[in-house]
Design brief:
Layout lengths: L8 H4 L5 E8 L3 H14 L7 E5 L5 H10 L9 E8 L2 E9 L5 H12 L73 E7 L6 H16 L3 E8 L2 E8 L4 H5 L4 E2 L18 E5 L6 E3 L8 E6 L2 E7 L5 H20 L13 H10 L13 H11 L4 E5 L2 E4 H17 L7 E5 L4 H12 L3 E4 L6 H11 L3 E4 L5 H6 L18 E7 L7 E6 H15 L6 E4 L7 H10 L4 E4 L2 H4 L2 H10 L4 E4 L1 H13 L8 E4 L10 H6 L6 E6 L9 E5 L1 H6 L3 E5 L3 E6 L12 E7 L5 E2 L3 H7 E3 L6 E11 L5 E6 L3 E4 L2 E4 H9 L4 E9 L4 E8 L6 H9 L10 E4 L37 H15 L16 H13 L7 H6 L3 H6 L6
Parallel strand pairs: 2-3, 9-11, 13-21, 15-16, 15-17, 20-21, 22-23, 23-24, 36-37
Antiparallel strand pairs: 1-4, 1-10, 3-4, 5-12, 6-7, 7-8, 11-12, 13-14, 18-19, 19-29, 24-25, 25-26, 26-32, 27-28, 28-31, 30-31, 31-32, 33-34, 35-36
Protein name: Amino acid adenylation domain-containing protein
Pfam families: AMP-binding, AMP-binding_C, PP-binding
InterPro entries: AA_adenyl_dom, ACP-like_sf, AMP-bd_C, AMP-bd_C_sf, AMP-binding, AMP-binding_CS, AMP-dep_synth/lig_dom, ANL_N_sf
Amino acid sequence: MSSRPQPTRQQSDPGRSCHAAAVAVAGDPDEVAARFAAALARRGLDVARLWVDRVPASAAAARRAAELARPLPADGPPVRAVLLRHDAGADLVLVARRGPLTGRALGELAVETAGTAPPAGAEPTAGPGPGDRTEDVEPEPAGQPGPAGQAESPGSAAGETAGTGAEDDGKHEGDTAWRGGNPRADRTASYAFAVPAGTDLLALTGAVGAVLARFGGVRRVRVGTLRDEGPAVVPVSVDGTLRALAARPAEPAPWPAPGRTPDAGPPEAVVGVLTADSPADTYLPSLTPPWPLTLTLRGSTVTCDFRTGVWSAEVVATVAGYVTRVLGQLLADGDRALADCDLFDDAERDRVAALGGAAVDLPELTGGIHERVAGWARATPDAPAVSYGDDRLTYAQLDARAGRIAAALRARGCGPGTRVGVCLERSVDLVAALLGVLRAGAAYVPIDPTYPAERIRYTVEDSRVSLLVGADGVEVDELLADDTDDATGGGAATAGPDDPAYVIYTSGSTGRPKGVQVPHRNVLALVAATRDEFGLGPADTWTMFHSSAFDFSVWEIWGCLLTGGHLVVVPHLVVRDPAEFHALLRAERVTVLNQTPSAFAQLVDADRRAADRLGLRLVVFGGEPLDAGMLTGWFDRYPERDCRMVNMFGITETTVHVTAQTIDRGLALAGTRSVGRPLPGWYVHVLDPAGRLLPPGAAGEIHVGGAGVADGYLHRDELTAQRFLPDPWRGGRMYRSGDRGRLLPDGRLEHLGRLDDQVKIRGYRIELDEIRQVLLDDPDVLAVAVTVDTVDARLHAYVVLADGADPPAELRRRVARILPEYMVPATVTPLPALPLTANGKLDAARLPAPAARPLPAAREAADPGAGPGRAERIRVVWERVLGAEVGPEDNFFDLGGNSLLALRLLRELRAQGLGEFTPRHLYVHPTVRALVGATGTER
């Protein structure tokens, strides 16, 4: 079998190397043949046959179009000439390869052959010319060189040639997205539009470049074209003018390029611009459109030929409108910078500004969160409110406990305008304490007790809390034991809807976390916007799965208690054991579940092995991007009518959730990236780097406005001013998210990742710069790079160390004393220097594989205390999963293990018959020696 690469459609399509011209002809066929031979001879070309065919007048137009679209065979002459005679006259069609004849030369040859342009004194044109390219393309066999009516010639399919007039059905997924067509229904369609008088190829190229730059959010784009010497790209800088563009030469782009796909077009160009200027009546500069979107200028009309698998008809029409508007501005002012051209008129601007969410009047939001919960205590006092294992509180009991805590807090000086730190283990008292803080009129600052002491200390100091509940502060039992004059906690003035409810700390690029301050009103608005749509009410049972320091818990706790539901607090170890969590969901008859996609993937695996089905009716995803395809198997067991799956996009600074997209089987199979439309009261804008509205389908930075925008960053006025901006279109403020996305014409939002170094790991928002800064704070660290392994959800650090520095293992231990577990790099690899690009930036592609961590304990070939065979086999599995050497006393989590790797390890141990271990075993016995000694059956 030959190893020669098979030609792609782009490489083998003979229509790309041919152009065609047609003219009306008068005279005897013999005279036409003679003129044709003479015209070829004057150009130094071999004599070619003139094919003559008579056709009915009714079929003449169709035959003329077919001949224009039929490319030359590989071994035929450089020109094919067909004379089509009919009752109304005759048409001459010439098809040629570009090497021998330029576009103008082909037109001159046509009119000379037709006898409409006398050759006397004229200097014939030959060789490459404007509008042509000379690349060597291997054509597909195309039958005999005669006219289509005399010999079969497959050529191009009618639906894949320029100017067919085919229309996009617009029914495929992504049909409204920028370059969002359907490859499974790929074909070529056309769209034509008028352009202002005076439009030439230069102006059209500049206008197309300006529009593409706005869509891409860049300052420079490359537009494809065909020049005398072949295909080229024109660098269009939107900071320049048309005059500057005229002075900038095109860059050759030989094509097809090795390894490029059929969809690609010439390198670095997604759109091409051609001219059909020719002496002939009709001229096709290429029989097959060279680019996924090819614009051809013919007088005052531009024809857009586009691949429906890459572009949708709706977006092409939108782009055409923008190009027309920009052309008018450029032709009126030749010194106008392309970047200064406006895509929108006033009506279009208003429409785009309103696309990201309609104005909605939410119910009047009065009082505070605690008052709404107290309302449920009065209405349903005996209904279950919160539980943790066997410890359960009704709404009346929760309200009474929160009241006693509030009274004790007030007695200690905590009230409106103050903040109270809450650093408690998961329990019913954690929820009661949070509610008690709100009832006292203060704002709570949740702190995860598993955080390192340094992180806890920083949060307490930075937030300037008046009191810390838990950790080294006052305990809940002390607050409950206080003897105060106001035992119910309802005596003093309380907080209103505009007062702060909580401050949650998020990762910060400066190396220190930053506190986001959110008022009661935002949380009340979130519940009001979702309660009816999701059918939330007293019949629901929710889980508090996430840490109170993670903003997803705001939705879990208050979404449940503000709608009268039962909140089940999930124990810390159960969170890490999908099988135990599945059992808890079943035992507690949970109906509403909130998960990051990473955690839900583990639950899906546990559900496949479980005999009993869950009673879930609503699953809400958040915290990180969702791969919708992972849900197809879930729908097999839990049909959409029984369990609704909702993907929500949100940010701490915009009160947990912003948009919602219900995922059905069709969207899951299509792998949708949509996060849906904004919630009632929320809205989004997608802006370019200059802060201008982008058209629907264009990718830019997501800005969020409306009911969820937080008060700002605590004690960070400058940062607040940078991220919380005035909204020039709707008034009020909007949050600049740093997330990349695009609005679709129907108002849905697609989330496309981050614009910066921020990442999401297991739902946690992490600024890589914070990790870098903590490492750089060590005086022995000279330079740092941090990367993410998305498969294992692990971070890896690369450091340049000073002479005599401590080993990387010690550096990692110091970092672990400052950063939470999920931010500690799994490995620290020393390098003599970080690899850099020519521009002095980190060249991440040249970073080596992460180094295996050296052993904190001496390695032993076997564990004599528990049987060398089994111990050694378990240790080998650990090494394979962790990618590091493992000793019998090495801690799994100190070696970079996390919850995802723990599940992988346990599955492999189970598959090899080494023990029926659970995540609980690993958390309790985190070394090889300890795990070998475990029974493998304890729960």
